Amino acid sequence: MVRDVQVRENPRWDSQFLSLWIESTQKVDLTPMANIAAENIAADVRVALRQFRRAAAFALGTVLILALGIGLSIAVFTVADALLLRRLPVAEQSRLVALWGELRNRGFDHYPLGLEESRDFARRTRSLEQVGFVGYEGAWPITLRSGDATFRLRRALVSGSLFNALGARAVIGRALRPADDVAGAAPVLVLSFAAWRQQFAGDPHVLGRRLLAFDNAVTYTVVGVMARGLDYPRGVEVWLPIMTTVPRASLEYVAVDIVGRLTPGTSPDAARRELSSFLLRQGGPALEKSMGGVVQSLPRLVLGDTRPALLVFSAAVGLLLLITCANVANLLLVRGLGRAREIAVRSALGAGRQRLVRQLLIENALLALTGGGLGIAVAAGAVRLFLAFAPGDFPRVDEIGWSSTIVVDALAITGIAMLVFGLAPAVLTSRTELGELLRAGTRQSRTRRSRRLTELLVVGQMALALVVLSAAAVIARSLINLQRSRLALEPSHLLIAELALRYDQFDTRAKGLALLDRLLPALQAVPGVRAVSPVVAIPFSGNGGWDGRFIADGQSPAEVAANPMFNMEVVTPEYFAALGVPVLRGRAFTDADRENSSPVVMLSQSAARHYWPNDDPIGKRLKLADTTSGRLTVIGIVPDTRYRDLRTARPSIYFPLRQPFFPFVPTNLAIRTAVPPAGLIPTVRRVVTETEPGVTVSSAAPFDEYLDRPLAQPRLNALLLVVFAGSALLLAAAGLFGVMAAMVRQRTREIGIRMALGATPGEVWRLVLRRGMTLASAGTLLGLAGAVVTNDLLNSLLYEVSPTDAPTMSMVIVVLLGVGALASLIPARSSSAIDPIVALRAD
What we know:
single chain, 24 strands
């Protein structure tokens, strides 16, 4: 021992030993070993291909099942990668927040700040290290002209410090700077990546191009194109500086949200508390109990309402992938047990268990690779289908596409699926004893344990299918309810037109009224037009209107404090006829309701009920809170319409246009037609241009097209979940059919004995059907428990339906049991047709 240690410590000996070892290894030729391994694998592949030719139906079914499950999984991951996983093109997005106020107990959960007020907060804040401002109205349409081309883009008013606060860089040119947002600066703008590609064909020479804004006659110079994916505020296509866009006289009306970067170590809640304290100091004791700050993370604002939907889809696809793996594992297990004699004979001839497992895994790998390759094609088709049905305002939709990451993940999904559904059946199949097989016979080689395993897999598939099917059913029921929601107006034969005009030429109320005095009679004279009225906002436009809080005569201080904000509309006498809104009580406005006449208003039903729940509202009076304006007499009641928001009927207060309550005049038009409205659009455009050469119709569409916009996202949700549910149901039915068919084949001898002893074909038929329905019922009960838990995740996507709606869940159960019965019916019928003599002779 001591001698060995001494020798190993001799450096000279170590060097000699190392030289000899290297020389010896260099003389070993590993090529034959590698060739042998390659030949073995090639032989296994050839054997596998021969097996697939003998069982073509099994191989084809397995590949199609894999392609469906893996393909849909890859498709959803492609969308999730763009919307949830891919980071925004900003610096340290987790530190970026948007802030605004709220008036608690007054129904105003998004209370913007004035521009000067926001600047004051930016100077005082300690929770934010960089601050920018974004116009409260978000992305709003604007008409731009470049040479002879006129186009409509959605613009956002922002401070010059916004992009510094975001840490966002331009891909071409530069972003806006603080120097661009001061009085007297040269008007400049930056384009979104999507607008650059769509409106300017990705022209790299777009920098320096001059664009005339039609509404304020300001000519802007393009100085940059922002990176793809910078979609804040939602839907923005062009960013304009506040100070060079808004006239100095109108700056006091500018309302903004604050965007800032949290200082290191500061939580969003700390920023919220700081803003709340600031607002309370600004608002004084009168707002102490109702004013507060709101903080939202920027990624959440960019993704908006798509995040919960996408999480639901991801969960549905995860369940579908589990069903796929369980289904294929079941098929492989059943087929492996059917090959028990073959495996036993190969084992007796000297094939070791490791060799058998390798052969089976190679067969499974070939199926997985083929299914994965076909799944990529399925995924490509599913992504194209998604893009075709995606709503126009779906965030970051232009970023959805293939990437190297997605291809790698597709291979990973295929590999994981292979391990999940291939390893366990291969190991179980390889456990075959020749002696036991020869004693029991091929038909009896299926053990009770293996039968229970395959049946448990089927129960699991049925349970998962019910979870996905129930989610799809409540989403579809929600869509139906939303489509059938009572608008309280007549959507057919209604045309909505948006006017583009220069506000510097119509900057006073008198000029706006004069414009309408010229346009409305000209449009009313068009053949096929029945009524025309200006409207404050286009349908379902979000923040496009005005809200106010009112006080009714006789209200106590506590009742006044509880008064909410109500939507306000400024209308002409023709408004209710144009929109098809009935007057329920009292009267509508007339031409006599004008300046110097008694101030009057009309109320929607819920607004009237709030102020006078037990009294007749006609003749009652209101005043606008926090002002010295006079009393307004209620003259009429109309229904709560869904013109502003499809999901919620907005309580509203209507004012006659001719009474000088508002300093602004609405310039969007609602036109009731006697003919299909789309056919009148060219005529309306021509009449507007001829009557008022400085005004043009920037966009016009039938009301139904506007109605499609809020329905687009629910329709997409329903479509995707229905596809997933149909796929899950099909896979579960295929799994149940496979298990029942295998049971009939492997119990042929038992069935023959039963029939020889007097069992009728009907009794055998019922025996098999009863077993199939037992499995389907067990899966249904298990899935029902899972659906009750998981459907709560859908609350934010539902409309007037409970996540556990009893009629919907009952329908789902009936459908699943019906599919289960259908999947069991064919094996049951084949069992009743078995010839007892043939069955008794079977091995």
